Amino acid sequence: MIELEKMDEDLRGIHEASMTFLEQTGMMFHHPKVIEIMKQEGIRVEGKTAFFTREQVMAWVSKAPSQFKVYARNPKYDIEVGGDHVELCPGSGSPFVCEIDGNKHAALMSDYVTFLKLYHQSNYYNTNGGIMVQPTDIGKSTIPMMLYATLNYSDKVIITGTGSTEEVEKLMDMLGLVFGSKEALLEKPRCITIVNTNTPLQFDTTMLETMMVFNRYKQPVVIAAASMAGTTAPVTLAAAIALTNAEVLAGIAVAQMINEGTPVIYGCQSTTSDMKTGSIAIGAPEGALCYQYAARMAKSYGLPCRGGGSVTDAKTLSVQAGYESMLTLLASYSAKTNLIFQSAGIMESYNSMCYEKFIVDLEIIGMVKRYLGGVKVNADTLAVEVVQEVGIAGQFLTSEHTMQHCRKEPFLPDISLRGAVTGDLTESLLDNIRKQKEKMLASYCKPEISTDIQDRLVNYLLGCGLDRILIEGLKN
Amino acid sequence: MSSLAELAQAVFQGDFRGSSVITQQLIDSGVTPMEIINQGLLAGMDIVAPKFKAGEMFVPEVMMSARALSEGMKLVKPLISDEDASKAATIVIGTVQGDLHDIGKNLVVMLLESGGFNVIDLGVDVAPDKFVAAIKEHSPKFVGLSALLTTTMMAMKETIDAIKEAGLRDQVTIMVGGAPLSQEFADQIGADVYCLDAVAAKEAAAGIVANAAR
Predict the structure, then answer these.
(1) B4-80 CATH choice from 3.40.1620.10, 1.25.40.10, 3.90.1150.10, 1.10.1240.10
(2) Which CATH class is domain A67-373?
(3) Which residue of A241, A262, A275, B198 shows the fewest CB atoms closer than 10 Å?
């Protein structure tokens, strides 16, 4: 049972406000099946609005597991979700792909595949897939095609999307074909998705349908709120965090009612709004604070958490993109957030993904990991004999100790400019970024997938009425 | 006794109680409704609009001004002659089917109302046939469609198609907006105007009305 008395004072204050929101204002669930289940469990419901008592919501939340493993097609990528494990996950939800100057095009399947390759090539990632970009050239039934592409181009932990019950069942059918059977999915979590509430205090039909399918198959689902202080939540951060907290806990409670013990992740992507325009401001210091508090709240409840990323409101690949992304990623990572989506490529308040930004974000990730890796203090690193040997007014560049550690101790930048640089200074950094991207794509190799599984998947998709040419294009 | 200039200031300052009091005083002293609206209430918003555009006034402050205008309008609107009332352009607006997001749409509603438009707000998750019914009922000049999700954008096309099928397409100017939209998408689905944000929507609608008036 969650021990509220042990919570830090500020978190406890937030928690109590969340409980009051649920008891007093309630939360609307746009799904008759969910309403029915809640009534059966003794939750007071008026119309579509559920009023949880604090005892009810916390009793259900305490049934959620505090840590679980998610299994990839390739076991070397299996991940633990929970505790202080941090896993990076791809960008999620952008409809556009933009260039460094802000010019953008509606995302295509070819962009989706390029991002699959890039995330596959990065050693920072054990996960891949999801709505990295929303392809606009593959018709209406997009999530099965995106999953098919993910299965073909990567064998890392699978992320998927959202949709109607029918669409999401197709994902389970496909995973059943790959991993033995749909029943086998109950034994091993194989894919993660994100469902979102509509702040303030609503959960829409599509999101609930997605969540219920995931709950039934015991596949992990991030239940996330993305409150915007000042527009969809009160402008003061404590209230925005408390509102987020209420919605997410209510969602987690419902998930446990649907299937007790089903894995869930507490998700908070909340931030502030820009007071001049009413727009979301994702690169704001308030966002960084929300991500920090999300991790603290979730950990005090004993729940795995998701939040943050390397995110910016910048319209072009500018210094703004750099400083906002660094702040938000440092905040998310140092809070030991278990799953960090939106961690590479995000531009323009989630509207676009950018290839060059992706490469920049990998550099930011590397710097943050090095910084949080801290300083190892031991006999070797204190190098007392080395200092004695080199002596007063000596130099260490040529000593054996330096040679032994030079590739392990410091962060080795892939793109950042250091030292003397010749040629066009403004182009040099961009050049490094482009070269790094080309290098990653050039060294990409498609992971193995058995012909048998491939054939079953293809037949399944054709059976769903999906385009043969599109399928063949992804297969080859 | 307060003046029209003082009413404009009350609107600009977001003083909704003051706006109500002054409007009533002006009505009682025989100032015509249209003068109160144009030289008092809308004049106040005319001070707000450029400051908002320049980033000197923030959205919450503009909302307060809109509220002040609305408090005054409540008192004066019932007194307008039918002839004058029909001069206000009408827009039917809503967030399309399957989508519950409405912040952007609400900003558009606020800006248009405070710009003298007659706004019929259908809310969120509005089915195509509900838009069609509203067009038949209110005969608007404009129809505004909003969506935030890539998965609900296509409902905009379905709505436009339904309006065409009902034989109403030529009567209305269709404006679309929302984060996942673009000019290309608006062209593809047969919309008339793509609006980058709420201010662009207001300016486009006001521009079209002004052109028609010439």
Answers:
(1) 1.10.1240.10
(2) alpha beta
(3) A275
